[in-house]
Specification:
The complex is a heterotrimer of chains A (354), B (316) and C (417).
Chain A lengths: L2 H24 L6 H24 L7 H16 L8 H21 L7 H21 L1 H4 L15 H7 L4 H28 L2 H11 L1 H6 L4 H27 L10 H14 L4 H30 L13 H15 L8 H8 L6
Chain B lengths: L1 H32 L6 H19 L6 H31 L8 H21 L17 E2 L19 H23 L1 H11 L1 H6 L4 H27 L1 E2 L3 H16 L4 H21 L5 H15 L14
Antiparallel strand pairs in B: 1-2
Chain C lengths: L8 E10 L2 E11 L4 E5 L6 H8 L7 E6 L2 E2 L6 H23 L1 H8 L10 H14 L2 H25 L4 H6 L2 E3 L12 H8 L1 H6 L7 H9 L1 H25 L7 H24 L4 H20 L15 H13 L5 E5 L7 H16 L3 E5 L3 H7 L2 E6 L2 E6 L1 H6 L1 H9 L6
Parallel strand pairs in C: 3-8, 3-9, 6-7, 7-8
Antiparallel strand pairs in C: 1-2, 1-4, 4-5, 9-10
Helix pairs in contact in C: 2-5, 7-13, 9-12, 10-11, 12-13
Classes of the chains: A mainly alpha (354), B mainly alpha (316), C alpha/beta (417).
């Protein structure tokens, strides 16, 4: 099956998934697919954001979860009842990416011009700092509890009737679902367009030969900063959707290094630099993590009988999955399962001997 | 006040020694392969589990006097050997096939290895052993028995100097001196330095680069294993995420000192250890990452090549 | 020391040291506008190092490079200095809040009153009160330290990026590389387009501002939709947040906004997908740029290979593509690093014609070459480097007769083809 047809199937299925859910509910099944799918969309945006930084600009950014967290926390601060801002979900959806982009620019401006390897340590470090800051500034962030309740997305009553949803919560869930889908589609469309413009060309040139590109008048620092801040903005967008979907900014450990690596893993499996790869990688891995692994856990519990031992839970083994996935992908298929043609060629060529 | 300062200075020195030992592994590999071995911190962590298992198996916590020190020395040697072998195995199995691949490939693989090792640590901690508290809570920190007497060597002085402080500083200094001699006085060390400067030229001059890389991973892993025992003796806990945190600080130390520069790693480690001790005392332990990484960023702005590093130019 | 006004490029006492090795030593070089100049010398004489220093890849140990009488390094203007000061102020503010305690400040300013009693002016007076109540000395110290770190940091970053390859390129110096550095996995045409990036950004592609005049006719059409649709989206979102953030009394306004948002978003996305560029204007500019790039490819004789990948070209073709790419930046001065290397005699003759044609386009050429026939055949002036030092300078005839040059080249084995 080609990736196009796979994408087409998703494109058809995603808009009508909630229908299954309603049907399932009528039949007495509690699938809650739409809430889980929103998580997939959110991570889809996050993987696409990382793709801008790692895939397009070739920056090894390992702190993507921090910008995700900044988006979520900004949304929390701007919307919760106990603070005076009350921007609402839609206001936060405009502001959260701006806040994340500013954070990205501040951290990127002094460090992006340095040796590429340093960016890895700086971004991991930034992730660590953010996690501790979120926990320590308890008066602002409510520490490990997180800010809540983050208000749900607003649905007018006529839309509720039109959707045929039973109550406000259900209608909100549906609106959230379609909002997340629309944001994801918009992000992908805009990036797809950018890939073929002057900026997209500059990214490729920079990846291929930074020095030659600079000698042609392209400013590597500026282009990298653009990618870095842009990716951060998209991550902030994802964070806003995430917090709204959960109705809480959640425990700051949700935005730590493990999370960043999971996103990287989605991108590597899908294919660096490839938008469809990023989407399918997120669908595969996050889908697995969110939908399949709880099922597996239940299966293990049924099989073993004793569910109390921690090793009887899949979560105790999931880092093997991510770790080995990264190792084997790099060894066997560094361009990912659904590669971008150009990146595949770059990754397969042996670097010239100096 | 002066006592507090002296106490923090001592704490910073001992912390810094551990950082420096781990940082050396990062910096040596970087110097030769220009590659950040993200899994290095986790080799340190696994060596800690290995040492704890050894202690549990040998009943070392009950030993006294000479037999204690002899066995402790044995644990140090075995843990170093374990770290060295694990590190070399990782290189041969994972990194070596990617030697000619673009830079991103080994980096991403190293992150993968790091996660695999962490999961191994988690499972290891679930082994049903007494030292692991029966293995019921794999993620919880395991306590490493306080093997050394905790008496103050200075008698009633306000400054507490325990045997473990002396041991940590003394043993670390000894190992670093040995490393320094290895790098400056032996043929292997010369080959290492030559390869770090220009692998192509070194190869042409008859240096077996592959052997040099293997030796580097062995030495780096050995230092990490050694650091693990020292750390466990000092902090008295071992847990599956200790590699991540300490590895991150150690790598920061390597960058602060100038990545690829061996004295720089030691200097950076000591500096970070001292800063950490003083910031814990005067700012608060919860702000530790913010202070340390803040310093990293400021340093990178003012001296991008690190304290002792030199700016290398790309060949055109 | 200022350069003679007649020189396009003037290099003064340029020295380049790597550790103990001196690659270039106190070299002077002048290139007049409209000439073809050459640098020759045995292998390892420091020619490429000199090129790298001129184009901003290496920072010279000492000496200056002037273009059109101006230092190629970015000048320290008032704007630059105010940039440092602004960074310093921002950083000092951050440090001030750290000293005041971010958490405590938030508590005193935002949490002090229930949300419905919150006013912006009240927040500011709370803020000032909180800061004033703190330890004044500590805060002063912190803001001062913050200012110094921020301003000096910005200065350090600026000092490091005063001389950059892109900075020199933007002043009108383009180059090719000895070991060809094309963007190998990009198309031939794309390679040229990359180099036109600055002109694409400014919309100044096309000869005589062709893009501009093409735009003049068509710009208004649909341009308001390109910007209007996303603007409607953002405004509708802000409006929705405004009207629904605090609870909803009347659904009419937010409903209209929601419909407008979804409609505008869908319309914009459909527009983007169908057109494939962000704005209609950029599509026109791109088309003009492609035309200009094709003309350049024709100039170097590669127009038939425009659609191929760069790494599928033959060696000589790759060299010519590098020339086309360099010309696409619209340089005043073109630096060619051994353009004839690896070429057969007939290609070499073509190359000489090409270099002359480049000069006739009004581009000054400075080249490094080993091929004596090329150098003697086309150069107006020649500079000879040996061991990083300039030993001679003059017209081809003068150089041919110079005893120092003859001596230097007799010992070298690759000089006398």
């Amino acid at each position: 099956m080609t990736t196009e047809s796979l994408l087409l199937i998703f494109a058809v299925l995603y808009p009508i998934f909630p229908v299954f859910d309603l049907a399932g509910e009528a039949a007495g099944l509690q699938l809650h697919l739409d809430q889980r799918l929103v998580t997939i969309f959110v991570y889809g945006i996050l993987v696409v954001a990382l793709n801008v930084q790692v895939g397009y600009a070739g920056l090894l950014q390992l702190g993507i979860a921090a910008f995700f967290g900044i988006g979520a926390m900004a949304t929390g601060v701007m919307t919760v009842d106990k603070y005076p801002f009350h921007f609402g979900f839609w206001g936060a959806l405009v502001c959260a990416p701006l806040v994340a982009a500013v954070a990205g620019a501040v951290i990127g401006a002094p460090t992006l011009r340095l040796r590429g390897d340093y960016l890895a340590i700086v971004t991991i470090g930034f992730g660590e700092v953010l996690r501790t800051v979120l926990i320590n500034l308890e008066n602002i962030t409510d520490g490990p509890r997180g800010l809540n309740p983050v208000p749900e997305v607003w649905t007018p009553s006529w839309l509720r009737d039109w959707l045929g949803a039973g109550d406000a919560g259900e209608a909100n869930l549906l609106v959230m679902y379609y909002t997340a889908l629309l944001v994801l589609v918009a992000a992908v469309v805009v990036l797809k367009v950018i890939e073929n413009t002057r900026i997209g060309r500059a990214f490729v040139a920079l990846r291929e030969d930074e020095l030659a590109a600079a000698c042609m008048g392209l400013d590597p620092g500026r282009i990298k900063l653009m990618a870095f801040a842009g990716g951060a903005a998209l991550s902030g967008l994802a964070g806003c959707l995430y917090a709204t979907n959960l109705t809480t900014t959640a425990d700051p450990t949700n935005y730590d290094f493990n999370n960043a690596v999971m996103v990287l893993c989605c991108l590597i499996i899908g294919g660096l630099g490839s938008l469809r790869g990023a989407l399918l990688g997120a669908a595969l891995l996050i889908g697995f993590d969110n939908v399949l692994s709880p099922l597996l856990d239940r299966g293990i519990q049924v099989a073993v009988g004793d569910a109390s031992h921690p090793l009887a839970r899949f979560s105790s083994w999931r880092w093997f999955l991510f770790g080995f996935a990264l190792i084997f992908m790099m060894r066997l298929r560094p361009e990912g399962l659904f590669p971008a043609r150009r990146v595949a060629a770059e990754l397969h060529e042996e670097p010239e001997e100096a | 006040m002066l006592d507090t300062l002296a106490q923090q200075l001592l704490l910073g020195l001992t912390n810094g020694m551990v950082f420096a030992l781990i940082a050396l592994g990062y910096t040596m590999v970087y110097g030769i392969l220009e590659f950040i071995n993200f899994a290095h911190g986790d080799v340190f962590m696994l060596s800690g589990f290995f040492a704890l298992t050894l202690v549990g198996a040998s009943g070392l916590q009950d030993a006294q006097g000479f037999s204690l020190f002899a066995q402790l020395a044995l644990v140090l040697v075995l843990a170093s050997g374990f770290g060295a072998v694990v590190n070399l195995l990782i290189d041969r199995l994972v990194y070596k096939p990617l030697r000619k691949a673009p830079k991103l490939a080994p980096l991403v693989s190293a992150i993968g290895v790091s996660f695999v090792l962490q999961n191994i640590g988690l499972i290891w901690g679930a082994l049903p052993l007494d030292v692991f508290g029966g293995g019921g809570q794999p993620a919880a920190p395991k306590s490493f028995p306080a093997l050394l007497p905790t008496d103050n060597l200075l008698g009633d002085a306000a400054l507490t100097l325990q045997l473990k402080d002396v041991l940590v500083i003394g043993a670390s200094l000894a190992v670093m001196t040995a490393l320094f001699l290895l790098v400056t006085r032996t043929k292997l060390g010369m080959a290492m330095r030559a390869t770090a400067q220009d692998p192509q030229a070194a190869r042409l001059m008859g240096v077996d680069v592959d052997r040099v890389v293997a030796a580097t991973f062995l030495v780096g892993g050995g230092l990490a294993g050694f650091a693990a025992v020292v750390y466990a003796l000092y902090i008295n806990t071992v847990y599956y995420q200790m590699g991540y945190q300490n590895g991150l600080y150690a790598f920061t130390a390597a960058v602060v000192g100038g990545i690829g520069n061996i004295p720089g790693a030691v200097l950076g480690g000591l500096l970070l250890g001292l800063v950490r001790a003083f910031s814990d005392q005067f700012i608060g332990a919860q702000w530790q990452p913010a202070v340390l990484f803040g310093i990293l960023i400021v340093l990178l702005v003012f001296r991008p090549a690190g304290l002792l590093g030199s700016t290398a130019r790309e060949k055109v | 020391m200022s350069a003679p006004a007649t020189s396009l490029l003037s290099v003064r006492k340029l020295t380049l040291r790597f550790g103990g090795l001196t690659a270039v030593s106190e070299v002077d070089l002048d290139v007049r506008p409209g000439e073809i100049a050459a640098v020759i010398g045995p292998n390892g004489a420091g020619k490429t190092s000199l090129f790298n220093a001129i184009t901003g890849i290496y920072e010279p140990t000492s000496g200056e490079v002037h273009l059109d009488g101006r230092d190629v390094r970015a000048p320290m203007t008032g704007k630059v200095v105010s940039g440092w000061l602004a960074t310093g102020l921002a950083s000092s503010l951050l440090f001030l809040f750290i000293a005041a305690g971010i958490d405590a400040t938030w508590k005193a300013v935002i949490k002090a009153h229930p949300p419905w009693e919150f006013t912006i002016s009240g927040a500011f007076s709370d803020l000032f009160a909180h800061v004033a109540a703190g330890n004044t000395m500590l805060m002063l110290l912190f803001s001062l330290v913050g200012f110094v770190i921020g301003a000096l940091g910005a200065r350090a970053v600026w000092l490091r990026s005063r001389r950059t390859p892109q900075g020199v390129a933007l002043q009108g110096v383009a180059r090719t590389f000895q070991n060809i550095r094309l963007f190998h996995h990009m198309g031939v045409l794309e390679n040229v387009l990359v180099a036109m990036d600055r002109h694409l950004r400014r919309g100044t592609v096309g000869s005589g501002g062709a893009a501009r005049s093409a735009l003049d006719g068509r710009f208004p059409h649909g341009a308001w939709l390109d910007l209007g649709l996303p603007a409607v989206c953002v405004l509708a979102m802000v409006g929705l947040g405004w009207t629904t953030g605090d609870g909803v009394d009347d659904e009419t306004v937010p409903s209209v906004l929601l419909v407008a948002l979804v409609g505008a978003a869908l319309a914009w996305l459909v527009r983007l997908t169908r057109r494939g560029t962000l704005t209609g204007a950029s599509r026109i500019v791109e088309a003009v740029a492609r035309q200009e790039a094709m003309e350049l490819l024709k100039f170097v004789g590669l127009d038939r290979r425009a659609g191929d990948l760069a790494n599928s070209l033959a060696y000589g073709e790759q060299r010519r593509l590098e020339v086309a790419r360099a010309l696409a930046t619209r340089p005043k001065l073109l630096l060619l690093d051994e353009p004839a290397a690896g070429m057969n005699p007939s290609e070499t003759v073509e190359l000489m014609a090409l270099v002359r044609a480049i000069r006739d386009r009004g581009v000054t050429v400075l080249l490094i070459e080993h091929h004596m026939r090329v150098v003697m055949g086309i150069s107006d002036h020649i500079t000879v480097l040996v061991h990083g030092k300039r030993i001679a300078h003059g017209t081809p005839d003068e150089i041919r007769r110079d005893p120092k040059v003859i001596e230097a080249y007799l010992g070298a084995d690759d000089g006398g083809h």
